[in-house]
Amino acid sequence: MTSILILNGPNLNLLGTRQPEVYGTTTLRYIEALCQKKASELQVSMEMRQSNHEGVLIDWIHDARGVFDGIIINAGAYTHTSIALMDAISSVEIPTLELHLSNIHEREDFRRLSYIGKVAFDLVMGHGADGYPMALERMVLYLEKH
Ligand code: CA2
């Protein structure tokens, strides 16, 4: 069975508790439930994880080799800073999709640069929590074609 890893970076554990005007009122736990539902409709398996630590995210990407067919990543603010995460993604050669709740092209200038975008095959952003199941659909379509 096709298996997809969904990674969430720093501060995304706070979803639904602070800044609802920017990031919505949905918790990460609820988003995980939405994704489990979508994954079972798509007949794939998925696992969602969150870490506030760059090295932990990098270890999970390394360990995904031979275990997961695709990675969906909302790297949070590491999106804009982490060449290390970008290198980890390109080293494992697992198709990776970049995901954001907000539209990073319509916010502060410093959010326009994405290192993840340099190695991801696709980008879903600006759809809030709904972007997560959307990203799963896009990933499954991509994996069916490649
Ligand atoms: O829009 C996204 O998904 C982001 O990846 C979210 C990051 C931000 O740094 C990126 O530029 C875009 C920030 C995540 C912070 O999440 C919070 C959630 C609730 C309360 C406070 C922060």
Would you give an account of this structure?
With 146 residues, the chain is an alpha/beta fold. It is built from five helices and five strands. Strands 2-1-3-4-5 form a five-stranded parallel sheet, with helices on one face. α4 links the parallel β3 and β4 (96-100). α2 (28-42) runs parallel beside α5 (131-145) and α3 (54-63) packs parallel to α4. The longest helix is centred in the N-terminal third of the chain and has 15 residues, at 28-42. The mean pLDDT is 97. The structure holds ligand CA2. Ligand CA2 is lined by residues 11-12, 14-15, 18-19, 23, 74, 76-77, 79, 100-102, 104, 111.
Order of helices and strands: EHHEHEHEEH
User: Can you count the helices?
Assistant: 5
Q: What is the number of beta strands?
A: 5
**Small molecules in complex:** ligand CA2
- CATH domain class: Alpha Beta
Q: In percent, how much strand structure appears in the residues?
A: 15-25%
The quaternary organization reads as single chain
Query: Which structural category do the helix and sheet elements fall into?
Result: alpha/beta
Approximately how much helix is present in the residues?
Answer: 25-40%
What is the mean predicted local confidence, pLDDT?
A: 97
CATH superfamily: Dehydroquinase, class II
Taking the sheet with the most strands, its summary is: 5 strands, parallel
The separation of the N and C termini measures 15 Å
Count of distinct structural domains: 1
Cα gyration radius (Å): 14 Å
